[in-house]
Amino acid sequence: MSEPQEIVETRGNDRVDLLATDTNGDGKPDVWVSDTDGDGKADLFQFDTDGDGKVDITMVDLDEDGTPDTIVDGDGGLPPKI
Predict the structure, then answer these.
(1) What is the bridge-based pairing of β-strands 16-21 and 44-47?
(2) What is the rounded CA–CA span in Å between residue 78 and residue 73?
(3) Rounded distance, CA 32 to CA 22, Å?
(4) pTM, whole model, 2 decimals?
(5) Would you say residue 79 lies in a domain?
(6) For residues 48 and 23, is the Cβ–Cβ distance under 8 A?
(7) How many domains does the chain have?
(8) Which residues constitute the domain of residue 56?
């Protein structure tokens, strides 16, 4: 069992997945793009890089300028609802 992850700071406490897509054709989502503050703009980006269905990299863009402010290994305490 993996260790609990520290929760990364996002713009809000809600999560609305704007995009969950399968980029490698295995039938499971491996990219998640989410809005956490209800403004309809993406600020949380997560990637499954090894195909196991779990988030391997989390990026947060707090000021929504297109440049991540935080990049962490794992789901950053914010696993997607798969």
Answers:
(1) unpaired
(2) 12
(3) 9
(4) 0.91
(5) no
(6) no
(7) 1
(8) 16-73
